[in-house]
Design a protein that fits this description.
Elements (H helix, E strand, L loop, with lengths): L1 H18 L5 H38 L4 E5 L3 H5 L9 H15 L2 E5 L24 E3 L6 E3 H11 L11 H16 L1
Parallel strand pairs: 1-2
Antiparallel strand pairs: 3-4
Helix pairs in contact: 1-2, 2-4
């Protein structure tokens, strides 16, 4: 993430410099630099995603795992104004899929609804258990962990398999909320 933020900062700096040039060779040179940084970032992400996906597959093979559970991401969700726009999670997901298929490991998609707010130790769900972006503390059993680690354990152990985002509880609840709002007007 840090490298991607640095690439973005460099491109923004070049865009600001580009505004001050009206034309000529200076403008063309700055435009080529912006495109060069965009290509560098893309190459970096692709290489890093290959590294991560290979390690995930090696880990699965080393632990004799028959399947890998992932959250279902579509390209739209992976790029829509979130932290994911700075990182190629969708690309990583695709790489894990084809490398797992090559090794005979199934990739299953699970419903990510409340995975970061449910205790991975006792299964308790309550609002407010994820105290901060990075801290999870169960109100029932007192289990304390990094929130992302807790969510990843829940994803790994989940059996709530889905094949499309329409099957997700989050998606269904957001549709219910939208229809309730529309009925008020």
């Amino acid at each position: 993430m840090k490298v991607n933020i640095q690439f973005k900062a460099r491109r923004e700096r070049l865009y600001r410099q580009l505004k001050s040039t009206k034309g000529g060779k200076g403008r063309e040179k700055k435009l080529s630099n912006i495109n060069q940084y965009r290509e560098l970032q893309s190459n970096y992400n692709r290489t890093y995603n290959h590294f991560l996906s290979s390690n995930i597959i090696k880990f699965a093979l080393g632990n004799k795992a028959g399947q890998i559970n992932l959250e279902l991401l579509s390209m739209q969700e992976a790029t829509k104004g979130t932290l994911l726009q700075n990182w190629a999670y969708y690309q990583l997901q695709q790489m894990i899929e084809y490398k797992a298929e090559r090794e005979g490991i199934a990739v299953c998609y699970i419903d990510p609804y409340h995975t970061s707010q449910t205790c991975s130790k006792c299964g308790n769900y309550e609002d407010g258990q994820r105290e901060t972006q990075e801290t999870f503390i169960c109100k029932k059993c007192g289990f304390k962990a990094n929130a992302d680690y807790n969510a990843s354990r829940n994803i790994a152990m989940s059996t709530k398999y889905i094949s499309s985002k329409e099957e997700s509880e989050y998606y269904k609840n957001s549709l219910d909320d939208d229809s309730a709002v529309n009925q008020k007007f």
